[in-house]
Design goal:
By secondary structure, the chain is of the alpha/beta class. The protein folds into 2 domains: 10-47 and 162-231 and 325-380, FAD/NAD(P)-binding domain (3-Layer(bba) Sandwich); 97-155 and 232-323, D-Amino Acid Oxidase, subunit A, domain 2 (D-Amino Acid Oxidase, Chain A, domain 2). Helix content is 27%, strand content 27%. The strands form 3 sheets. Strands 1, 2, 8, 9, 10, 11, 17 and 18 form an 8-stranded mixed beta sheet that branches. An 8-stranded mixed beta sheet has the order 5-6-4-13-14-15-12-16, with helices on both faces. It has a two-stranded antiparallel ribbon with strand order 3-7. The longest helix has 25 residues, at 65-89. It is globular and about 65 Å long. 49% of the residues are buried. It binds glycine. Glycine (GLY) is lined by residues 53, 59, 236, 277-278, 321, 347.
Length: 386
């Protein structure tokens, strides 16, 4: 085992300063622990690309009920989380309680959506079936061909960029130490995670370490084999359009649809931004925006809301979702003593940020894994560390 002299030491050392790492750093500092975050660009990460749909009900997948409960728990605390952030920092997070309308464009979509509605009803979730006419009454910009829809009153939205900025500021105000450098090696001493070596050569240590480095979490050199499964990068391309003020209301709520088997969503922000997402591409650590990706998004969005072609297109970008082997997050202590995981949130990183922050802070402060986190234990993938 490596022997080394301690550098700066805090109670908790967080590797990764995206919204997952910053959220839990903030909550942990609020519990009186000293916290350090290492990241070359804290406040960056996938949340800066994401549309920020908070949609545990409309994005529900069959067989993912534990994830649904976690998503609903996070959604329920979102308004307070953002209010608290704004009170602490003076910064707006772009949280909007708009609700979501999921619509069907053809007979196959309608059959799929009505299956989803039946599933919602079996689970006692609040979603209301609408005819095409009723859906268009709610959102007059929808294409005349829309055949039906589901109105989900509690699936909302937040602006991931504003949220990232506010979390970074909240961490600074709460006394979190930020090391703007890359963690290049995990330091293990006496079979316990102890710290990291930074790209600057400096070593920082912590009583407990949290690995929140998204799709690069499992790649940290020095991490013993078998502690974390591979977290795969799943690329999402996304577009940002602007609704000129003269247009008046364009869309009033999140709109989603399945178009040709692909999930499409349009998220209208209060400031006039309209986000259209997202592709789902499994091809490694590539964030190139492609003509094909942009074409698909515009083609499908145009089918759903023809008026989008009039709007200025202001940005195209791509981010990487961190996908675990079962697409659910890894939350809690790992097989390596001293190392806690908060990663693998896949399509739900923005949604799950508040509940992840609360659950991991609770574990770090008390040593007890909260019941809500138990189904997401990293041990479900563990092999003996070597
Ligand atoms: N949750 C939206 C996405 O991952 O595209």
């Amino acid at each position: 085992m490596t022997r080394f002299k301690d550098g700066a030491r805090s109670d908790v050392l967080v590797i990764g300063g995206g919204i997952i790492g910053l959220g839990l750093a903030w909550r942990t500092a609020q519990r009186g622990l000293s916290v350090t975050v290492v990241d070359p660009a804290p406040g960056g990460g996938a949340a800066r690309v994401a549309a920020g749909m908070l949609a545990p009900v409309t994005e529900l997948q069959y067989g993912e009920e534990p994830l649904l409960h976690l998503g609903i728990a996070s959604n329920t605390r979102y308004a307070d989380f953002c209010q608290e952030l704004t009170a602490a920092t003076g910064l707006d997070t772009g949280y909007r309680a708009t609700g979501t309308l999921a619509v069907a464009l053809d007979a196959d979509d309608k059959a799929e959506l009505s299956e989803l509605h039946a599933f919602h009803q079996r689970l006692g979730l609040d979603s209301r079936w609408l005819t095409g006419r009723e859906a268009r009454k709610l959102e007059p910009m929808l294409a005349p061909g829309v055949r039906g829809g589901l109105h989900v009153a509690d699936d909302h939205q937040v602006d991931g960029r504003r949220l990232s900025t506010a979390l970074l500021r909240a961490c600074e105000l709460a006394g979190v130490t930020l090391h703007r450098a890359e963690a290049v090696e995990l330091l293990v001493e006496g079979d316990r995670a102890h710290g990291v070596r930074l790209s600057t050569g400096e070593r920082v240590t912590g009583g407990q370490l949290v690995l929140a480095a998204g799709p690069r979490s499992h790649q940290l050199p020095g991490l013993p084999d078998g502690v974390l499964p591979a977290i795969r990068p799943v690329k999402g391309q996304i577009l940002r359009l602007r609704i000129p003020p003269a247009y008046g209301p364009f869309l009033s709520r999140n709109v989603r649809a399945v178009v040709r088997g692909g999930h499409l969503y349009l998220v209208p922000r209060a400031d006039g931004e309209l986000v259209i997402g997202a592709t789902v591409e499994e091809q490694g650590y590539d964030t190139t925006v492609t003509a094909g990706g942009v074409y698909e998004l515009l083609r499908d969005a145009h089918e759903l809301v023809p008026g989008i072609t009039e709007l200025p297109l202001v940005e195209s970008s791509a981010g990487l979702r961190p996908g675990s082997p079962d697409n659910a997050p890894l939350l809690g202590p790992t097989a390596l003593p001293g190392l806690v995981a908060a990663t693998g949130h896949y399509r739900n990183g923005v949604l799950l940020a508040p509940v992840t922050a609360d659950l991991i802070a609770e574990y770090l402060a008390t040593g007890t894994v909260p019941a809500l986190a138990a189904p997401f234990s990293p041990s479900r993938f563990a092999r003996s560390p070597r």
